[in-house]
Write a structure and sequence with these properties.
By secondary structure, the protein is mainly alpha-helical. It contains 14 helices and 2 strands; from the N terminus they run H-H-H-H-H-H-H-H-E-E-H-H-H-H-H-H. Helix 3 packs antiparallel against helix 4. The longest helix has 17 residues.
């Protein structure tokens, strides 16, 4: 049996990792516990090989990262397992284009889907994760920013651009809402991330946009791509995105497959 798993969970909850990441790391440790009776270097190597046989490299490394963090936590860091090499894609996939982003917003306005228009616009103009967007209150829109604090004490500010702030405040005033969460469901309760994802897919189908590029995180990617095109400061973007490592942000220097296709078609004439 593995030791201090509950303490390890408390430790992770005090870090800046997202809830999904924490669940993944804990799943790695529990998976090992189900398959091996005791913690040993031999069993860890066997576990690593079994992961390679079952999963893609990205998933393997996620599981290994969880195990390694656990080993560090219990003072067995010398047993850390090495990661496998991931073949990185040479382009970004499933990122909504700026044209489709603008088209979607115009369709939502035309159909008077004002609440959903602002869901899309806030995601695309702030770079917020969906979990962060759901914390946005009218008071934050009025202040022009949303301050976030993790359990680990990390601070991040999400800015509401001035033009978006003015339009959103006009909409909220028209709806007679001066306080509380911005995005609500039909029952007047804070909407869920699942509810937003499902509705976005419906809009993609309604407006004949590829559903593969219409999901909450796609608009965060769009924000990063558009920001770099207009302000080539990747360190500043990393801060805005809340990335701990600037290498994570460098992915936005790559072009999407559609952008690559367009350039090839325009350049190659031989």
């Amino acid at each position: 049996m593995l030791e201090k798993i509950e303490e390890f969970e408390c430790h992770l909850n005090g870090t800046s990792f997202s809830a999904n990441t924490i669940r993944s790391y804990l799943a790695s440790v529990r998976q090992y516990q189900e398959e091996y009776e005791k913690l040993s270097l031999k069993n860890l190597k066997s576990y690593r090989q079994s992961l390679i046989a079952r999963y893609r490299p990205k998933t393997v490394n996620l599981r290994i990262r969880g195990i390694n963090l656990y080993l560090d936590f219990i003072g067995r860091g010398k047993w850390r397992q090495s990661f496998v090499k991931e073949q990185q894609s040479t382009f970004l996939e499933n990122v909504i284009s700026e044209a489709d982003y603008d088209y979607l917003k115009s369709c939502l306005i035309q159909d008077k889907e004002y609440s959903w228009y602002f869901v899309v616009r806030f995601l695309g103009a702030t770079g917020a994760r969906i979990s962060e967007l759901l914390q946005l209150k009218v008071e934050n829109v009025r202040a022009g920013h949303l301050d976030l604090y993790t359990k680990g004490g990390k601070f991040r500010r999400i800015y509401v651009p001035r033009a978006l702030q003015a339009d959103a405040l006009t909409w909220l005033e028209w709806e007679r809402r001066g306080t509380g969460f911005v995005f609500l469901n039909q029952r007047g309760q804070r909407i869920t991330s699942r509810g937003i994802s499902a509705q976005l897919k419906k809009f993609a189908e309604r407006y004949n946009i590829d559903p593969a590029v219409v999901y909450p995180h796609s608009f965060r990617h769009r924000f990063a791509k558009s920001f770099l095109e207009r302000c080539n400061d990747i360190a500043f973007l990393a801060d805005l995105m809340g990335h701990d490592n600037i290498e994570t942000t460098r992915v936005y220097l790559r072009k999407t497959s559609m952008e690559q296709r367009k350039i090839v078609d325009e350049v190659v004439e031989w």
